[in-house]
Amino acid sequence: MLKLTLALNLILATAYLFPHVSAASRIRPSAGSVIVRAGTTTSGEFQTVSGAVKSLPNDNSPTTIFIYPGTYAEQVVITRPGPLTIFGYTKNTKSYKSNTVTIQYGLSANTSGSDDASATLRITKANFTMYNVIVSNTFGRGSQALALSQSGDRAGFYACSFFGFQDTLRAERGRQVYLGGYIEGAVDFIFGRQGKAYFENNMIAVSSAGFITASGRSSDDDTSFVFNKNNISLTSTADSGTAGNVFLGRPWRNYAKVIFKNTIITSPLNPSVWSIWAPNQPNTDNIFFADFNSTGSGIQGAQRALFSTLLSAGQAGAYSISSAVGSDYATWVDTSYLS
User: Fold this and answer.
1) The domain containing residue 270 runs over which residues?
2) Where does the Pectinesterase catalytic domain lie (predicted)?
3) Active-site residues: which are they?
């Protein structure tokens, strides 16, 4: 379990929706926030995140939940229609390394009946935002076991951490951004079918041989996974034999579309960089797997698969946060987390 560090700094005055102009502490809730505090006996506060979520009005009003430090062992499902922002207590809003709030559960898809049902955190609503929270599925190996299942529109995750092994993060549908966070896994650990997803300034950590992405895009639509300015590394406890057996992705469906730009790669990749889905089902007829300006020791000596594309600078310019989630992204994305 990631060790949690308490913070005792003063909080800066913040706006409700996009409160982070620069790195700051956040140690107190804003007025009107629903409060979650482990072991609390204070009237009006909640000991669990799910309890706080269930207390919210089932309407279109904007609401805020503030979570004090602790580990909350539970599944959380968020369905309410109105905008919801969850803030985790932190001494540095811009760094996932300072996160002190963990939501964790250990359910597998084999037991729950589906990928979605196994997720520690399930989002099925629009206009969801979360800052500085660790989300973990502690099941481990042997089955798909999700930390996050995200199928709402206009979802933003800022300086959050996601831990799992297989299928850690499901970007299933809707526009969504993951900025300044940490994502750990081994097999298909960033995946989804109809998600319009953008990832920037994240640490993507690989714990065993496998595939970082598994795009399930099944038609020539406007969905894609776009990665820009991320780092890919091995975890400190990665399995022996992981080096050289990691791929940027494999195509879950035949129109998979994944683009990596400006990636610093220290995890030694397989020289092919990209993989087929399986020997009897390659799924490469209509896919678009591409990278640009990939640097670092992990990409040296690459001999990219013939079904992939090494982009020129001009070609790479077509893939951005705008291409991934729309040119109106600034109306709902906290742009202070962009480079």
Assistant:
1) 219-328
2) 41-310
3) 188
Q: Is the pLDDT of residue 32 over 90?
A: yes
> Residue 169 falls within a domain, yes or no?
yes
Same domain, 63 and 164: yes
- Are 224 and 175 part of one and the same domain? no
Report how far residue 205's alpha carbon sits from residue 237's, in angstroms, rounded to the nearest whole number: 11
Please give the mean pLDDT across all residues of the chain.
Answer: 94
Q: How far is CA 48 from CA 59, 62, 255, 306, in A?
A: 21, 20, 40, 50
- With a cut of 90, say whether residue 10 has pLDDT above it: no
In a domain, 164, yes or no: yes
Q: Tell whether 254 and 310 lie within a shared domain.
A: yes
CATH of the domain at 287: 2.160.20.10
Inside any domain, residue 20: no
Residue 205 in any domain: the answer is no
pTM comes to 0.93
- For residues 57 and 111, state if they share a domain: yes
Distance CA 34, CA 65 (A): 5
Q: Give 82-119 pLDDT, tens digit per residue.
A: 999 999 999 999 999 999 999 999 999 999 999 999 99
Percent of the chain at pLDDT exceeding 90: 93
Claim to verify: residue 157 and residue 235 sit in the same structural domain: no
**pLDDT confidence of residue 13:** 27
Count of domains observed in the chain? 2
- Alpha-carbon span 187 to 211, nearest angstrom: 5
Question: Confidence class of residue 19 from pLDDT cuts 50, 70 and 90?
Answer: very low
pLDDT of residue 6: 27
